[in-house]
Write a structure and sequence with these properties.
It is a single chain. By secondary structure, the chain is mainly alpha-helical. It has four helices and two strands. The chain has one domain. The protein is 52% helix and 7% strand. The chain has a two-stranded parallel sheet with strand order 1-2. It is elongated.
Length: 92
């Protein structure tokens, strides 16, 4: 991970688990902590879409018309989150 993230913004959905994992791995190899800016899309979705049945990523993606043909696959989830981020920015 060292050098890969540098000052990149980390965008994801319900990021607590992912950040703990990333920090653990990053510290193991660099002895540093991540200091990147983080954007968790879950609170943004909850603010913009108050009447969804639930806030699981699958439900939110369906609401925004975003297809994720391989849920729980890291790359596909990342692509879906970027698309969700772009739609949320347009709806602001």
């Amino acid at each position: 991970l060292y050098g890969v993230l540098d000052d990149a913004i980390i965008i994801g959905y319900n990021l607590n688990f992912d950040l703990n994992f990333l920090n653990r791995e990053y510290e193991q190899y660099t002895e540093l902590k991540l200091v990147n800016k983080v954007i968790d899309l879950l609170p943004i979705v909850k603010k913009q879409c108050r009447f969804l049945d639930n806030y699981r990523l699958e439900t939110v993606l369906q609401y925004f018309g975003i297809e994720n043909s391989h849920p729980h696959n890291a790359l596909e989830d990342a692509k879906a989150c970027i698309e969700l981020y772009e739609k949320l920015i347009k709806n602001k």
